[in-house]
Amino acid sequence: AILEVNGNLNCRCVKTASDYISPKRYESIEIRPVGSTCRRTEIIIKLKPSGKVCVNPEAPWVKKLLKRIAST
Amino acid sequence: AILEVNGNLNCRCVKTASDYISPKRYESIEIRPVGSTCRRTEIIIKLKPSGKVCVNPEAPWVKKLLKRIAST
């Protein structure tokens, strides 16, 4: 994988997807806040039955998803 | 672990904590939306350097945390 040497060594996502993924396919949503070892927020969706995808925190549908979670 | 047989077989959290955990200690926040195999939303915080804790989605500080994530 492409190693980032500017202090982002522990980032999990090398690239992120912006295209919509239906909530029906989610097993879980993992949010990795900006931390010492990764300088950006990362959002990783685990899919049913398997697989993971890094999604772009700036994508409008991702922002809506997080808002909906916060309001339940 | 206590096995729940009312369709919650795949819930990860048997019980949840409501007391505040400082964001400095988070490695990640995992949200498991209500699904076919678990009838309740589960929020699992992975702690630095290790350890996991299930937190109560209804606890005020958890709701604030999710709102803050949604607004970044």
From TrEMBL, chains A, B:
Residues 8-69 form the Chemokine interleukin-8-like domain. This is IL8 protein. PANTHER family: PLATELET BASIC PROTEIN (PTHR12015:SF198), SMALL INDUCIBLE CYTOKINE A (PTHR12015). GO terms for biological process: defense response; immune response. The keyword 4Fe-4S does not apply. The keyword Secreted applies. It is found in: Secreted. Keywords: Cytokine, Secreted. It comes from the Eukaryota. One of its GO terms (cellular component) is extracellular space. Its main location: secreted. GO terms for molecular function: chemokine activity. Transmembrane segments: none annotated. Pfam families: IL8. It comes from Ciccaba nigrolineata. Belongs to the intercrine alpha (chemokine CxC) family.
